[in-house]
Amino acid sequence: MVDETFKAQVDAYVDEVWEDVVADIETLVRIPSVEDLSAARPGMPWGPACHDALVAALGIAQRLGLDAHECEGYIGYADLPGASETQVATIAHTDVVPEGLGWTVDPYDVTRRDGYLLGRGVLDDKGPFVLSLYAAHFFARMVERTGKPLPYTLRCLVGNDEETTMADLDWYLEHYDAPAFCFSPDADFPLICGEKGIFHGLFTTAAPVAGAAAPVVELDGGTVANAIPGLATALVAGEAADFLLSRCTKGIESEDAGDGRVRVTAHGIGGHAAFPQGTDNAIGKLVRLMLADDGAHMAGAPALATFLRLVERLTRSSDGSAIGIDTTDEVFGALTLNAGVVRTLEDGRCTITVDVRFPTSITADEVVATFERLAEEYGCTFEAGIAKEPFYMDPSLPEIQALLDTYREYAGRPDAEAFVIGGGTYARKFPRACAFGPHDPSVVDPAWVGIEHGPDEGVSEEVLRRGLKVYIVSIARLMELDLA
Description:
The protein is of the alpha+beta class. It is 31% helix and 26% strand. Strands 10, 11, 13, 14, 15, 19, 20, 21 and 22 form a nine-stranded antiparallel beta sheet that branches.
């Protein structure tokens, strides 16, 4: 199927549809599809906004000639039926993380600037999702033109809860068979064949430590557990306010909040929890200032000072060395730790989330045991959340090699190899799957282009255009394999 004539047809197709691709990305980005379980109801298990994005996505799929189906609001799929019911599938998602702070453009619109698209979800994962639909549309037009179906059914899965628990896919796999092979356009090129284990947890002070009568009235920082916070604030009073006013440094500013209170804001460098290199946790930056001079200004609030010391320890390093869980293995590399969200509850207790990406040299149970010891030491309770074991797919599999060969050809990188990451994608849920682009780390973006989960999230249009070509040719090559 894949020859020079076929590839020329792919090039012409991408040129023809590109403005439609951007318009459809824009349609989805304009929907603030952040999970809201407080508003969930039958048919909208992840909340109305996520459902709106799912409906819009399936509408695009139907318009592009695919057979689209909504699965009770949990997830969706769009098929191009083949000669066999055996499926080659893609899976991308239409939910996003909260916009957070620090944007210079509207997060819920697409800004085109100097060959880039900016907006929440253009990279993770509404942009790549639209690419998956247009890849299927290419084959729908080919089938219509030739009258000859593809060897296998091509299914585009429409995820709707990837950013939190992936419970959408759990539901799907309880009700439908897994595809013979699936790739997720929700990651980096060349190809991701393995993912570290993922663990989330929550520390909560055992008693109220903040409030009107405390040196710290409230703490607030971060948006979600799996994002490194770029901004954190504290509303402080009394001696603590006087102290912090005199000690603000670069990246930390203060403003009068009235009634003798001061709001202190720390600016860090946000990013994805799985990729801490080059980031600066704003919560840690703020807390280290608050604990300067041994926290003498917190002398009247020992429980608060104890909690701040826990937060400082959790944010001291991103490799877990400050709490004794730093470890590495030959396949997955080093463990990462992120304390991503700090909050003050209505009753004055404070919470801090932790996100751990771990290799095979440590277990989730060992991580839990460490956090439980810390909770006891620092006067907190600890609640364990999601725990996912490491995932690995043999890169020598013919499906993996078909995808890799296609990327190598289009990127001009003949030595590009599959690799493993700390992030978590849908691929880990399937018996035979991988994560495959479209972001390309070999492309150097301007400094004003933000990363996934961060402000001013952006992606190169040229990278997306090339990604669409790679996906079409990869699917064609998968169709030539024996997947029965």
